[in-house]
């Protein structure tokens, strides 16, 4: 019986390079999994949008003067509220319009809701009219 011993010669440099290459390939695979894996899509799809993003308007008519309430909505928040097409004569006839809207808008931005909005007694009817118009515009962009 003759047994021949076989000797395998490995160069240390080649072994080290191979191990480093395998480690980098595994790290790259893990990175790709976390970046494009299904976990990210499930987290995003589980969150439902509150609004359809866009700009929505509702009309207000006072003593023959018509102007619009413009509400800008993002997917989950009220971004801006403004009066548009407000003529100078309407501004002069109804001077509480802008201050009342600024007060209401500040409260709405903070709470992101039309609930529990307060307004002074001297701006009661103006504020109610504006709130009604804001609500109408927001309902146009609300996702049900």
UniProtKB/TrEMBL annotation:
Superkingdom of the source species: Bacteria
Keywords, alphabetical: Membrane, Transmembrane, Transmembrane helix
TM spans (from-to): 15-37
Name of the protein in its database record: FMN-binding protein
Species assigned in the record: Blautia ammoniilytica
